Amino acid sequence: MSSYSLSVITRLIETVWYNITAGHAELQEKVGEGMRGHVLDLDVVVARREGREEGREEGREEGADNKLVSLVCKKLAKGHNAEEIARELEEELATVKDIMNAAAPFDPQNYDIESNRKKWRGEAELAQDETSTIAVGI
Questions:
Q1: What gap in Å lies between CA 89 and CA 87, rounded to an integer?
Q2: Residue 85 to residues 64, 69, 72, 81: CA-CA distances in angstroms?
Q3: How many other CB atoms are found less than 10 A from the CB of residue 113?
Q4: What's the CA gap between 23 and 19, in Å, rounded?
């Protein structure tokens, strides 16, 4: 059997195996042990697993950032100053001031948390640059 045929068959087996055991980590582990780890070590499976883990971590970080921005904005709307907010939230004063600067252009009674987070983290400029690149490329 050629190496190409073997790689095609291996990919097919991996795809079927993955679809059958998706969402069942314990079963994947047992099947992997039974197959001496050959299937679990395929690049596609490893890449999928790492991609999911990275995505979850990014989601947790964005969620924590959104919560912090939300709390800072709520306290701003109530008239608290940066020092009070930093003390109450047990955050660095510089972090609170950065969030306040990102929130400054928005209506204090109606802060857009996602836009504030993106501006605070510097993602707003990246999104605009990507949009400009796409528009120019059309």
A1: 6
A2: 16, 11, 7, 6
A3: 19
A4: 9
69 Cβ contact list (under 8 Å, min separation 6): 99, 102, 103, 111, 113, 116, 117, 120
Residue type, 10: T
Angstrom distance (rounded) from CA 22 to CA 95: 40
Q: Which tokens is 57 given?
A: 């971590």
Q: Quote the CA–CA distance of 75 and 36 in Å, as a whole number.
A: 56
Residue spans of the domains in the chain: they are: 1-41, 58-137
- For 35-86, write each residue's pLDDT tens digit: 545 544 556 667 777 888 899 999 999 999 989 988 998 898 888 999 999 9
